[in-house]
Amino acid sequence: MRAAATAPGPQTPQAYDTEFTLQLEKLRELLGTYLKPEDIERVAAAFRFSAEAHKNQFRISGDPYFSHPLAVAGILTAWNLDAQALMAALLHDVAEDTDITLDEIAEKFGKATARLVDGVSKLDKIEFQSIEEAQAENFRKMLLAMASDVRVILIKLADRLHNMRTLETLRPDKRRRIARETLEIYAPIANRLGLNNLFRELQELGFRHVWPLRFRVLGKAVRAARGNRREVVGKILVAIQARLAEAKIEAEVSGREKHLYGIYRKMREKSLSFSQVLDIYGFRVIVQDVPTCYLALGALHGLYQPVPGKFKDYIAIPKANGYQSLHTTLIGPFGTPVEVQIRTTEMNHVAEAGVASHWLYKEDKSLPELQQRTHQWLQSLLELQSASGDSAEFLEHLKIDLFPSEVYVFTPKGRILSLPRGSTPVDFAYAVHTDIGNRCIASRINHELMPLRTELKSGDQVEVITAAHAGPNPAWLSYVKTGKARSQIRHFLKTVQFDESAALGERLLAQALRPFELGAGEIGDAVWDRFVAECGAKSKQDVLADIGLGKRLPAIVARHLADGVEKTGAGAAEARGQGPIPIRGSEGMAVQLAHCCRPIPGDPIVGLIRKGQGLVVHMADCPGISRIRGEHAKWVDVEWEPAGGKLFEAAIKLEVENRRGVLARVAAEIAEAGSNIQHVTMDEEHGVYTALYFVLQVSNRTHLARIMRALRHLPEVVRISCVRE
Ligand code: MN
Hints:
The protein is α+β, with helices and mostly antiparallel strands. The protein has four domains: 4-209, Orthogonal Bundle (Hypothetical protein af1432); 213-364, 2-Layer Sandwich (Beta Polymerase, domain 2), CATH 3.30.460.10; 491-640, no CATH class; 648-722, ACT domain (Alpha-Beta Plaits, 2-Layer Sandwich), CATH 3.30.70. The chain is built from 28 helices and 21 strands.
């Protein structure tokens, strides 16, 4: 709540001075109980400085503005906070609302104080909009992440408490907004830090201003029921005290008053009537040490019967905020449920004041020691936790809450995104949407144009500027933090590479198709589909990319495609390369050429008739036959029938010098000799020489001989041979 600069208050300057001189004396007295004299003087200096700076400002209520920072400091003294925190509390609105700068504060009151002031005003600047529960949680985490020092949060909570206490003077709609924010954001933070009293008060005030009518009705009902209640509470209290005394347990027993918001929530969440909720009585038993807690529990379970399943041991397993107690529910007189909390004095301090209890109940308060204390507090929670296992998870929990490995930033629409620490606007862009990441060209952080590699901080408002035809820059990979951004950038770059290769492959293929007097457009889908299936590729695009990347030869692909076009174009089922095998005397018989020796016309051949296989034609000197000789098989003399057009497979092996482009030259030579390459493989070794294996389509023995002769003339070819197994 800011000063309303136009509302002049009733005070004269003299009255102002007198009023605050009195207040300063009061504060000194309070601080005298726990601060060193020199620290008290520093706080007093901050007091005078702030009172002077806010001199002509007033709150909406008409009170001098300085009454607010003073009240905030007052709340902090109740937690025995140190001088730096008190100075920061007194100065927390100075840098925002007056012309005094942070540098001046640092100079006069120390850098640590200025840092605390800066931390608080940063929290003031961010505004919570969404009411979704998940967003509320992110917002709470954002606040905790931004407050690198626990004291910043404590000052902010005290600030909020005082604003809530003085909320009446605001307009109803403003009042409701602030109260709702308090219920959703600040009360849960207080709870998480274990600041129980503050948590309760923020909830009560929030309830009162968000639902004023319900608050009044419920309050009245509770007051009306109080007389009757008091009687029952008194009876049970006496019974508990008597039983504990009997068991020789020293304890302090008290009845607990229910908070209105607690009653309201129970009614709503558990659909209970008012009297059902109010009929539950709460008691607290405070004892000396942990073993006594369990003794007291045993004694009380002997007094009234416990409700099964209601016992909770938060001593063995503390809550995440450090809270420890034994909770049990008993069936009291007349069947009324009685809730009992049993804890030690120490545990009670933590339960009431949480993280602040470390300022409250220890002496000596130099700063490093304070930090150490906070650390120790976390450490002690950890140790307690590790006794019951699960410490890794518990540590993770604390890390997220107080020392987060994450940053929380706003989108332009006020949504909060959580990103790993070190994230950049590029990570942010990909977190919002892949397309935004792929198209981002610049970024604004808090409305200022900033480089894409800037590290984001909690509370930043981030906006990404995109351009329709932009694409990711490979350099981004050197600084993005999130896996999503990294994989999306890689994916995009790979796709681009693939698309570019495919485009190049398409051009190369078009060139290679020219000798066949074919344009790329003349090759139909059916031809492509067949070719893709034959060569084991995934798609046409894949084949084109392979050509572009040099993994396939355009000439070979072109020839296959041209063949395909010819076949479909002629409309004949039996085109070149198919048709009956021209063996004389095989009429009416299924004929196949042996795969072991691959005979071609001109080779001396023999036929072998086997059951279920028909006639298999081998080379006469096929080494494979000797194995079959003795078997139950019928040998026949066969002879090639002179027939044109039919093509046969022949395998050859070339040993070549391993030079660039050798495969292309060999392939060109084969094409020149009028043969198709059916298949080619290459030895993986990359020495001086390498072996190429071709399966070619030839008409006959002479054709093969001509091809081999042509290849032998190539300077790279060292050796050439027919492959027959
Ligand atoms: Mn304030």
